[in-house]
Design a protein that fits this description.
Blueprint lengths: L1 E6 L2 H8 L3 H7 L4 E6 L12 E3 L7 E3 L1 H11 L4 E12 L2 H10 L2 E6 L15 E4 L9 H12 L8 H5 L18 E2 L2 E2 L9 H19 L11 H15 L1
Parallel strand pairs: 1-2, 1-6, 5-6, 5-7
Antiparallel strand pairs: 3-4, 8-9
Helix pairs in contact: 4-5, 7-8
Length: 242
């Protein structure tokens, strides 16, 4: 997998990849990574890449030229070009899997200022948002997207680790515990000390469902539940109807 991050602020990207799972993935040769500075593609004085918008309005807008030329400098026939924007499709785990499985080169354009010239969209394949809120720029979303894809790639982390995480089966993760056994009166559930793997797995399946019902009931799809979870769901619904 290769990432090309197109940005006005390369140091934000550099500081993260030098400390994170991305660094480990680079060292393992699981990914390639490059940063493209939009300012390197402007022909104006003082590295200007933004301008006031036609029709009036507050704030500066990214001009099309530098952004498009930055894209074209790294794009190949195997690339997909992504733009981080609040107007895009909301990023989630299924999308992370889709990109990890189907693409070899992801170009991420980090939006900034009050937006970008609409003509840039002609050169974008997909618009992505990390949520219904506005950030100063697209650098943080680009890092989130890159991190969530990279950790799925073979050899980056163990297969078992990410298969058991939240959202892998449309449920939140089960609670986990470590030493000490007792902390301020709260105890580790006895089942986790039993050594009975079937009972432990049953408890974890149940706790996944309980956590999701409590915190994110919108995620639950009965078709993705196992037998234990389906039985528990019926029981919890019956109790709720009383």
């Amino acid at each position: 997998m290769k990432y090309s991050i197109i940005t006005l602020f390369p140091n934000i990207i550099k500081s993260y990849v030098s400390e994170s799972i991305i660094k480990k993935a680079i060292e393992k040769n699981a990914i390639e990574f490059e940063i493209i500075d939009i300012r390197d593609f402007t022909k104006l004085a003082h590295n200007q890449v933004d301008e006031y918008q036609y029709g009036g309005g507050r704030g500066m807008v990214l001009m099309p030229g530098p952004v498009v030329e930055a894209i074209e400098s790294v794009k190949t026939e195997n690339s997909i070009v992504m733009l981080t924007t609040p107007q895009g499709k909301t990023w989630n785990q299924p999308l992370a899997k889709e990109f990890a499985l189907n693409y070899d080169h992801i170009i991420i354009v980090c939006g900034h200022y009050e937006g970008f010239d609409e003509r840039i969209l002609k050169y974008i394949d997909v618009e992505i948002s990390i949520g219904d809120f506005v950030l100063t720029g697209g650098e943080l979303p680009s890092l989130i997207i890159m991190d969530s894809i990279t950790r799925i790639l073979p050899g980056v982390i163990t297969q078992e680790s990410h298969e058991q995480e939240s959202f892998e089966n449309n449920l939140l993760d089960y609670p986990v515990y470590t030493k000490p056994f007792e902390y301020r009166g709260d105890l580790v559930p006895e089942v986790l000390l039993s050594g009975h793997h079937a009972n432990i797995q049953k408890w974890r399946d149940e706790q996944q469902l309980v956590a999701t019902l409590k915190k994110r009931p919108d995620l639950i799809q009965e078709s993705s539940l196992n037998k234990v979870q389906l039985e528990l769901l019926k029981k919890l619904k019956a109790e709720g109807d009383k």
